[in-house]
Amino acid sequence: MGLGLLASRTLRTTTILSKSPRIFASQDPSNALRSIVSTPELQNPEAAAAAQPNPTPDLPPRTPVAGARVHLPNPDDAIEVFVDGYPVKIPKGMTVLQACEVAGVDIPRFCYHSRLSIAGNCRMCLVEVEKSPKPVASCAMPALPGMKIKTDTPVAKKAREGVMEFLLMNHPLDCPICDQGGECDLQDQSMAFGSDRGRFTEMKRSVVDKNLGPLVKTVMTRCIQCTRCVRFATEVAGVQDLGMLGRGSGEEIGTYVEKLMTSELSGNVIDICPVGALTSKPFAFKARNWELKGTESIDVTDAVGSNIRIDSRGPEVMRILPRLNEDINEEWISDKTRFCYDGLKRQRLNDPMIRGPDGRFKTVSWRDALAVVAEIAHQVKPEEIVGIAGQLSDAESMMALKDFLNKMGSNNVWCEGNDMHPCADLRSGYLLNSSIGGLEKADVFLLVGTQPRVEAAMVNARIRKTVRATHAKVGYIGPATDFNYDHQHLGTGPQTLLEIAEGRHPFCSALLNAKNPAIIVGAGLFERKDKDAIFYAVETIAKLGKVVRSDWNGLNVLLRNAAQAAALDLGLVPESGKNIESAKFLYLMGADDVNLDKLPDDAFVVYQGHHGDRSVYRANVIFPASAFSEKEGTYENTEGCTQQTLPAVPTVGDARDDWKIIRALSEVAGMQLPYDTPGAIRSRIKTVAPNLLHMDERDPATFSASLKPDFCQKMSLTAFGTTVENFYMTDPITRASKIMAQCSALLLKK
Amino acid sequence: MAFTLRSVKVPPNSVSLEEARHRTFDFFRAACRSIPSVMEIYNLHDVTTVSQLRSTIASEIRKNAHITNPKVIDMLLFKGMEELNNITEHAKQRHHIIGQYVVGNQGLVQDFGTKDQGISNFLKNFYNSNYF
């Protein structure tokens, strides 16, 4: 379902890419001198001779399915097969189905999925192979040299028709009430390959529905036993929750005992299910896929920046689906990303408000709200003005906030999560330097004070993929937590870190013997007082294990918030540690996770944001802003890849985009910022952090951390803490979401 | 009368800009001719005058003065004709006419206070809506 779209997108880019050389090639002969010889073969006798004995039929060149490309590392290992008479060169070990894809023939399939192991049980991909007595299942058959594959013969067609008839035997005909209708592989393929009538007259079987939790709805009678979900759960998600029970017609998918599916990636089984057996529970009976408008956007609930498609109908976000991005999220997204959207409809701020003397908020016009704030901002001393950007802020608004506060004479501006981290000088000091895709090359992981499973589920999925593929070792320092791959719990605090740095720990040998060791430091450590000492210890380990080399940079920081990397790039770091204590005018731009206990009682708090979350209780003035689904904003993810959200739905009520509010306020306050358009604000960003303009590109850090001066500070021996208490509720949107509340009630391990 | 017109085939497209221009004038004349009866139907004598309505129609047409594609002009003329038919058939109510053609889109309350003087276009647009 999602795959088709992903595929077409990739295809589009490849055709665009391949277009230019083709045009060039076609121009070439016409421009060159034409020789006056009537038979062109005489010009190049060898080629003509080679062409003569092998009269290949004049086949048009084919475009591979979904832009599939073959990389032949060793030309000797290449074999040639013929798909419907069309020769293709493929590497050894590819299956017949993959060879067909390279040749541009799409083979129908249900159980085969390119990111999962091969099951070969649906039999839909049967093709005819010459000299084979029976049609073969192409997904499970390795291609052999000289194989003549025929995908369009009567035998293959009849085989598919037969398989379809068997599958539909026990599949209910409830497409009109099925949520998969319109994006169902079975529906599509029965139209394309099925018979026009069935011969089955008995009763269909029925299967009891399973309860998989608040996210996945099951209608098990529709299941065709492709086992994609079972393979996804065991291989990618790393939970052994799903399995196949029974044999023959009694075969069914289920949890072995009554149990919910407790994985942070469980929503992906909805996408990979080819029929309507596993569908989205919150989306059930809400909309049909052809009514929805898809907007390609970016997820902001964590620092990974998963690529998503926001499906909306009118002013409402109906669902969120993953988009293919091999470097970041492959084709999966976490449950928080997928199901947080109902939070966009609750607790929204829709009008500017001022708190009256009785402590209640009164709705006012933008004109009045801006005038009040501008007046108060001029009454306080410049150094008493403090601005904090929230974890969902985009780069444009953070730039505007910093410029505005600087114009007011204050430089106390930072982003949530960076309040103790003044070291923004070197990008390598706060980025995931190996890149998310690059983690697959690592063979030893050392996780310091980070729980990737809850902090960045997609990074964790990448580590799990590596561990599964190469048996990479994982060492973990931090409080006891849940991993879905083999790991060694080395210790809980800085003590262990010091032992490794001094070479006294048994894990050191693993680190030293590793080819590509990767150290991942959690951004939660930024909040410790002794963070410099910890980072110094980590760098010592990096030096010891040769983690940072010219060809491999394995010293990584895993950030927590979507705004964090861009904020550090733009220089939103606090000047000193005690800013909030002395603040008289606090500008919160969507910052809800700051501790306001130490804020003086007479401080004036402006809250600009989209949700009535924690900070609103302390705010004096509220400016309603737009959420990530409603604005165009630049975000940089933890590996330094700049991406952009696009508006999918209109803003709520009288809300405005974040940067526009600050731009308007600056004018009312008499400190007009010099940009009126997103383009102008981006050219301002270009002077500060040009990498934020390179859309969809990862800009790696240029200098490595070795340029930093040595630093020695006493490390406190308190153990590392847990950064994210509740995976499902980390930001204003997810805290307002009902589905996320249900998940945290049911699925969190207590 | 107009209901019978509806069953009649849509006239063929204007061949040239000249023909479209000619049709526009025809339409304007037809609209002007219907103004007195419209004033009567909707009882507009105490809120507006014939000349005011005429200039409203003229300005509505001038709004599209930049369009040069005869097909588009034909489409707009068709829409205008529909609107005119609706009005003369009494398919609308008095407040529709007053709202659309007497008061205008800005509404009765028009804020031309001194407050907005000296502020940038950005801020003016900002106060109006998020989309500009």
Automatic annotation (TrEMBL), chain A:
Q: InterPro entries from the xrefs? A: 2Fe-2S_ferredoxin-like_sf (IPR036010), 2Fe-2S_ferredoxin-type (IPR001041), Mopterin_OxRdtase (IPR006656), Mopterin_OxRdtase_4Fe-4S_dom (IPR006963), NADH_UbQ_OxRdtase_75kDa_su_CS (IPR000283), NADH_UbQ_OxRdtase_ferredoxin (IPR054351), NADH_UbQ_OxRdtase_Gsu (IPR010228), NADH_UbQ_OxRdtase_Gsu_4Fe4S-bd (IPR019574)
User: What GO terms are given for molecular function?
Assistant: 2 iron, 2 sulfur cluster binding; 4 iron, 4 sulfur cluster binding; metal ion binding; NADH dehydrogenase (ubiquinone) activity; oxidoreductase activity, acting on NAD(P)H
Region annotation (Disordered) maps to 44-66
Q: Which Pfam families match?
A: Fer2_4, Fer4_NDSU1, Fer4_Nqo3, Molybdopterin, NADH-G_4Fe-4S_3, NADH_dhqG_C
GO cellular component annotations of the record: mitochondrial inner membrane
EC? 7.1.1.2
Q: Which top EC class is given?
A: translocase
SUPFAM superfamilies, alphabetically?
2Fe-2S ferredoxin-like, 4Fe-4S ferredoxins, Formate dehydrogenase/DMSO reductase, domains 1-3
* Compositional bias (Pro residues): 54-63
4Fe-4S Mo/W bis-MGD-type domain residues are 292-348
Return the Low complexity bias intervals.
44-53
Instruction: Respond yes or no to whether keyword NAD is given for this record.
Output: yes
Annotated PROSITE patterns: 2FE2S_FER_2, 4FE4S_HC3, 4FE4S_MOW_BIS_MGD, COMPLEX1_75K_1, COMPLEX1_75K_2, COMPLEX1_75K_3
Co-factor requirement: [2Fe-2S] cluster; [4Fe-4S] cluster
Keyword Transcription: yes or no? no
Name its cellular compartments: Mitochondrion inner membrane
Question: What biological processes does GO assign it?
Answer: ATP synthesis coupled electron transport
* Span of domain 2Fe-2S ferredoxin-type: 77-155
Residue span, 4Fe-4S His(Cys)3-ligated-type domain: 155-194
Q: Which UniProt keywords apply?
A: 2Fe-2S, 4Fe-4S, Electron transport, Iron, Iron-sulfur, Membrane, Metal-binding, Mitochondrion, Mitochondrion inner membrane, NAD, Oxidoreductase, Respiratory chain, Transit peptide, Translocase, Transport, Ubiquinone
Function of the molecule: Core subunit of the mitochondrial membrane respiratory chain NADH dehydrogenase (Complex I) that is believed to belong to the minimal assembly required for catalysis. Complex I functions in the transfer of electrons from NADH to the respiratory chain. The immediate electron acceptor for the enzyme is believed to be ubiquinone. This is the largest subunit of complex I and it is a component of the iron-sulfur (IP) fragment of the enzyme. It may form part of the active site crevice where NADH is oxidized.
Name the family the entry cites.
Answer: Belongs to the complex I 75 kDa subunit family.
In Swiss-Prot or TrEMBL terms, this protein is called NADH dehydrogenase [ubiquinone] iron-sulfur protein 1, mitochondrial
Organism expressing this protein natively: Liquidambar formosana
UniProtKB/TrEMBL annotation, chain B:
UniProt KW Transferase keyword:
no
Location relative to the cell: Mitochondrion inner membrane
GO BP terms: namely: response to oxidative stress
Membrane topology per record:
Peripheral membrane protein
| The entry's keywords | Electron transport, Membrane, Mitochondrion, Mitochondrion inner membrane, Respiratory chain, Transport
Q: Does the keyword Aminoacyl-tRNA synthetase apply?
A: no
* GO CC annotations, alphabetized: mitochondrial inner membrane; respiratory chain complex I
Which family is it part of? Answer: Belongs to the complex I LYR family.
**Name used for this protein in its record:** NADH dehydrogenase [ubiquinone] 1 alpha subcomplex subunit 6
* Organism this protein belongs to: Liquidambar formosana (Formosan gum)
Which lineage?
A: Eukaryota, Viridiplantae, Streptophyta, Embryophyta, Tracheophyta
